[in-house]
Fold:
Amino acid sequence: MDINSPKHIEFLKQVSIFKTLRGDELSVVIKYLTLKEVGENDFVFSRFEKEQALYIVRYGKLNLDLAGGKSRMYGKGEVFGEIGLINNNFRSGTIKTLEPTLLLCLNRNDLMNDRRIPASIAMKIVVELANIIATYLATVENTSTARLIEQGENDYVEFKSTLRYNLYTKKFDKEIEHATLKTVAAFLNSAGGTLLIGVDDDKNVLGLDIDKFPDDDKTMLHFTKLVEDRIGMQYAGYLNSCVEGINGGKVLRIDVKPSKTPAYLTHGNNEKLYVRSGPSTSQMKVSEIYDYIQSRFH
Structure:
């Protein structure tokens, strides 16, 4: 099957991430696209794999399974795998074909190599990919807190029962605060997200009274000071925090935008780099940090 056939070229002109490319620019990209045939009920990739390819559905149907039982269908002309391509991150879900499928694949190493695909062309593609991600994040940011709780935790939404109180030891606990800050730092270093404090993993609104702050202002002041002391004052501008009343209780909502520089979290005498790996937060190994920073921030 010839990827340079007129029918493939006409199809690619209609794909969203190529819509700003001129004909000659698209011809350059086509040189680095590969075809991948996948049979019915076969996996394309699974969660936590670190494969760095973007996929375009030429024909067929696929199902993406995310954390919390959520899923999404993909069909002709749709694009998936953009976060793994741009962010050099682990896959956030598992995608499987529902029928025989043909995919067009673009590898990160080709897209990011100026000797293969010139930077002027790659930038146009990356901007369109960023728009896909930004649209999703905007949807999350503009979604009501009640709706986020109903939908449950995922790659971009996480719940914490308390800000500083350990429900098991019945004491204030610095490690509980640290768990919150890890999530904030990971959102900063990845693609952003929303943290809800006062909600448990089962979507129950526990409220903020457990943390025993005198009022909402003191709750937010305490959180802001934690971020400034442990992550850095310069990152406060990436956070939008508020206290909302939900189902008879109160929830601290923190919307986090992706940062432009690496956000390290201080813990004791050490600085650590956290990122999102699908719906969870992971500490990066020292051997991985340099490559991640190069791919994410440069």
